């Protein structure tokens, strides 16, 4: 059992780290965490964060190795809201220092790194929770229990999509956005691995056969495209076949003129369930009738995520999104890249538009919302639905997927 209150540390307070820090300080103010330490590599630009941390009694370090060595055996939880290519190494280092971990999604860039965490965490006697915030919402867990209980009969297919425009500032915000590698470290940044990863992961979780597991992907068909000059892809359509026999079709883009908030459609033999980020759940079951659950929003999702991680510190049976769930998402991402290739959208289908009246210019794929809308409605990939620039999907078996690249 951890100390009361548990002792926590955070690595990184910039960018998305500000959100983790805000939640940590909130719980510290309630007496639910003792904030012991923080790693801040840019103290000169994060003076406000450092002042708030020091007011809690936290020691500030300039290097996470130094922090974990100094605090080894003294920490109950380490928060890791850093870049993708840092997740695995920092998680393993925190486990070695005797701490449990909450790491931002994805858990790691590659399946071999996730497997290393899967092997290390049980041996350390500590847990690793992954920041797929939507999976922690009680409404989503309640729907999952209904699905497992047969409310829709046998689940046949889940369709998901999300269009979130991102301009040049998004890709210039750090040294890994849109990259496949930083130096020799894999990143594999993309809409499927990062911004819209929550919803692909949620689809896999909802397809799982038991209340606390995700469906294992066994094969993938992937169409990967880019409209901007990046190493990775900014637009994708994938079809995943899972071990429970559920087909998952997922569509995502950052090179779009319009925003389409994420949504999932679940089709069963005896009903349907539709979830949207703005509308919540509508579950229509032939056996149980209709249920409506309003949207709770990402702020509430983060609150419930932190509450569940805090609960897990005191109850080893409390649910968190662990490596066994997170690896199914990484198998899809790695499988999509391994199947490849990433295709450039022909220039005649790409327009340059301004993000807002005075915003930066960004490339957008002409008529993309309509193209994805047709494919999504029919459960087809883009080339199957007649998209003029789409090419046949690359296919790959994910059975016994070894390492990335395979």
Explain briefly what this protein structure is:
This protein is 31% helix and 26% strand. The chain has helices at residues 17-29, 47-55, 64-70, 84-96, 111-124, 138-148, 168-171, 197-206, 297-314, 323-339, 368-378; strands at 7-11, 34-39, 59-61, 77-80, 100-103, 128-130, 155-163, 181-182, 185-186, 217-226, 235-242, 247-253, 260-268, 271-276, 280-285, 289-293, 342-344, 350-354, 361-365, 394-397.
Describe it for me?
The chain has 406 residues and is α/β, with parallel strands linked by helices. The chain has two domains: 125 residues, Rossmann fold, CATH 3.40.50; 264 residues, 2-Layer Sandwich (Dihydrodipicolinate Reductase, domain 2). The chain is built from eleven helices and 20 strands. Strands 7, 10, 11, 12, 13, 14, 15, 16, 17 and 20 form a ten-stranded mixed beta sheet that branches. The chain has a six-stranded parallel beta sheet with strand order 3-2-1-4-5-6, sandwiched between helices. It starts with 6 loop residues before the first strand and ends in a 9-residue tail after the last strand. The model has no long low-confidence stretch (mean pLDDT 96).
When the domains are counted, the total is: 2
Query: What overall geometry do the principal axes of the alpha carbons give?
Result: globular
Q: Compute the average pLDDT.
A: 96
**What proportion strand?**
25-35%
* Number of distinct beta strands: 20
Chain oligomer state = single chain
Give the biggest beta sheet: 10 strands, mixed
CATH topology of the largest domain: Dihydrodipicolinate Reductase, domain 2
Helix count, DSSP H or I runs of 4 or more residues? 11
Give the fraction of residues assigned to helices. 25-40%
Radius of gyration from the alpha-carbon trace, in angstroms: 21 Å
Instruction: Report the CATH superfamily of the largest domain.
Output: Dihydrodipicolinate Reductase, domain 2
Secondary-structure content class: alpha/beta
Judging by the overall fold, what is the CATH architecture of the largest domain? 2-Layer Sandwich
Per CATH, the class of the largest domain reads Alpha Beta
Low-confidence stretches: none
Distance between the termini: 40 Å
């Amino acid at each position: 059992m951890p100390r009361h209150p548990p002792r926590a540390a955070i690595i990184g307070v910039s960018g998305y780290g500000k959100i983790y820090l805000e939640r940590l300080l909130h719980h510290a103010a309630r007496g639910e965490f003792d904030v012991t330490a923080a790693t801040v590599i840019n103290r000169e630009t994060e003076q406000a964060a450092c002042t708030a941390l020091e007011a809690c009694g936290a020691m500030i370090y300039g290097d996470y190795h130094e922090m974990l060595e100094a605090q080894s055996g003294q920490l109950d939880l380490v928060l890791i809201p850093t870049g993708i290519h840092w997740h695995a190494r920092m998680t393993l280092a925190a486990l070695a220092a005797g701490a449990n971990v909450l790491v931002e999604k994805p858990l790691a860039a590659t399946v071999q790194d996730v497997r290393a965490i899967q092997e290390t965490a049980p041996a350390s006697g500590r847990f690793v929770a992954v920041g797929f915030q939507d999976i922690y919402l009680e409404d989503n867990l309640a729907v999952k229990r209904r699905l497992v209980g047969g409310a829709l009969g046998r689940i046949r297919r889940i369709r998901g999509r999300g269009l979130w425009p991102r301009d040049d500032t998004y890709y210039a915000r750090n040294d890994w956005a849109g990259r496949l590698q930083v130096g020799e470290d894999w990143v594999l940044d993309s809409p499927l691995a990062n911004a819209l990863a929550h919803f692909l992961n949620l689809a896999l979780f909802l397809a799982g056969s038991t209340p606390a597991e995700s469906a294992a992907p066994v094969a993938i068909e992937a169409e990967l495209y880019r409209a901007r000059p990046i190493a990775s892809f900014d637009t994708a359509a994938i079809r995943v076949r899972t071990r429970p026999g559920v087909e998952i079709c997922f569509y995502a883009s950052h090179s779009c003129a319009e925003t389409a908030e994420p949504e999932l459609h679940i089709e069963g033999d005896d009903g349907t369930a539709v979830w949207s980020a703005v509308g919540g759940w509508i579950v229509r079951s032939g056996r149980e009738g209709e249920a409506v659950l309003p949207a709770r929003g990402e702020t509430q999702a983060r609150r419930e995520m932190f509450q569940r991680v805090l609960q897990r510190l005191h109850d080893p049976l409390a649910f968190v999104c662990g490596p066994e769930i997170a690896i199914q998402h990484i198998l899809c991402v790695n499988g999509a890249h391994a199947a490849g290739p990433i295709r450039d959208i022909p220039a005649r289908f790409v327009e340059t538009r301004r993000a807002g009246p005075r915003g930066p210019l960004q490339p957008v794929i002409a008529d993309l919302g309509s193209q994805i809308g047709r494919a999504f409605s029919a459960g087809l990939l883009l080339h199957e639905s007649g998209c003029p620039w789409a090419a046949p999907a690359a296919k790959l078996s994910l059975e016994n997927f070894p390492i990335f690249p395979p």
